[in-house]
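Our consortium's second objective concerns turning raw sequence data into structural hypotheses that experimental partners can test. To show how far this objective has progressed, the report includes one record in full. It was chosen at random from the queue rather than selected for favorable results. The single chain below, 362 residues long, was entered without modification.
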Amino acid sequence: MKKTLYLLYGGKSAEHDVSLQTAFAVSQAIDHTQYDVQPIFIQKSGSWIKGPQIEGSVSSVQSLAFSGEGAALPTELATTAQGVAASSSKEANGLPVVFPLLHGTNGEDGTVQGMLELLNLPYVGNGVLSSAAGMDKLTMKRLFAQEGIPQVAYVGFIRSEWQANGSACLEQIEETLGYPCFVKPANLGSSVGISKCTNRTELKEAFHLAFSYDRKIIVEEGVVAREVEMGVIGNDHPECSVAGEIVPKTDFYDYKSKYEDGKTALIIPAHVTEAEQAKMMVMAKQAYKVLDCSGLARVDFFLQKDGTLLLNEVNTMPGFTPYSMFPLLWKHTGVGYPQLIQRLIELAEERFEEKQLIRYDK
């Protein structure tokens, strides 16, 4: 008997279009002999629409962007959850699995994960805590600092602080970080809303841009370093891929260079020493465990010329098309795209079964 796999994608997020690309890629690579693939599209308005079952190749990305009136609630998943509850099954084998392919807010930040926990359905990827902490760059960096993981210097602000005394915010950055520095929305991915600043005028503009995407922002010290990334999969016993390097041909790795103009080179495997590779693996696993990650993550580093390794961030739902860094890292490690998808589904089922061991009685 085939299992049902729900693809959950789109979303009320600035990364809506990226999510659509991811859903298209996964729908093409999934083994349809093993799974009945059921798409659920979340419109930018937040409406949920169940599409027709995907039985083979999908014609285009836009064919997955269903139109029409959405349900007030994700009724399809709720009905499925009721059936699961009625069966009282503690084994994932045979149960439907949800694959959230959502990037950014309202999907990668623990909100959808919380809903799936309440429904008690197996789902791919990170749980509520790791998703929320990984999405909020300030919270993530504070957790890593608590563990003594080396990072770039940073400061954070909320919108009301900026509105109350913007000059003091700018002065704090100039005194503690200096220029250049990078301003980012705290809760957003895909390099949306990020600015590189070399003077106060640019810094003011960057604050306005970042605060248009989030109520909280982070400002990081600019460092001269290579950007090196590593993929991690697993639950309690994570495994690391080879390292890969990002070489942007623009001033920095922004949304446009990631997805639009192709002005970025990916070098896989990265030209690093065995000692540097080993150090990255140790730090990647440490960061993965600090956030209590499950399923997958991409861990990003800064590697300075003197060999100093700094943790940049952990992405709990990295770009997931066959041409994105995360799948490419695993391809060069010996795990192809279809096999990677299958492994993540297995990890989702493994984590679901572990959660069923928790007692709720006294």
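The partners drew two points from this record. Residues 159 and 215 are 5 Å apart (CA to CA). Residues 153-221 form a domain with the Dna Ligase; domain 1 fold (CATH 3.30.1490.20). Both points have been shared with the crystallography group to help prioritize constructs.
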